[in-house]
Amino acid sequence: MPNTKRDYRTNLSVNALVFLDKKEVACTISDISITGAQLEIHPQPHFKNAMMLAEFIEIGDEVDFSVEEMHFDGKIKVVRKEIKNDKLYLSIELDDLFFGLENLAYKRKVYRTSHRMSGLIIMNGKSYEAVSQNISANGLTATIFEEVDIINGAELTINFYDPDVNGKARVIWHKTESEKTLIGLEFIQLMEPVKGIATFKI
């Protein structure tokens, strides 16, 4: 006998933001369950119509997403797209969300998106190879693949690629583990602003 059980879905409808074509796009989220929801993408002045907007979205895409009213943000996965009455609707899976209400001690003001990029962290006259875990408009988290003696508040130079993130940063926190160091940085002065990432205010 087939399993006809479905996740409970609420008829709640709230405003949200998704990051499409390197832009923050307004939408409405509805039919919310523990695993998924539906998005209605609002008309966008830089897209001629819903069909043009749909060209920027592929089934399986992972998209940055924020719902300020419900205090969560993170990654969603597009599983279906449909155009009705010149409106674009997306069925999504809730893949990797951060729930702000459960993490009030972590007072982020700008959304951080998961993003891996390689680069160098330069401090005390030495260069360390590093890989980022996430990035926002005002900072990033990265792993240095060796144990490094760091002081919170220290200033250093960063050179990351794709996107290019070059300039000065300050150590906000760090954690040393076996043969690696995890480091949280706040940008002080970059050669140019970080491009191509979501900057939701949360």
Structural commentary:
This protein is an all-beta fold and 202 residues long. The chain has two domains: 14-100, predicted glycosyltransferase like domains (Thrombin, subunit H); 113-190, predicted glycosyltransferase like domains (Thrombin, subunit H, Beta Barrel). It is built from one helix and 13 strands. The radius of gyration is 20 Å and the shape is elongated.
Shape: elongated
Q: What would you give as the CATH superfamily of the largest domain? A: predicted glycosyltransferase like domains
Share of helix among residues?
A: under 10%
CATH names the topology of the largest domain as Thrombin, subunit H
Beta-strand fraction estimate: over 45%
Residue windows where pLDDT falls under 50 for at least 5 positions: 1-5, 99-108
Report, as a whole number of angstroms, the end-to-end distance.
45 Å
Assembly state of the chains shown? single chain
**Secondary structure tally, helices:** 1
Q: H/E order of the elements?
A: EEEHEEEEEEEEEE
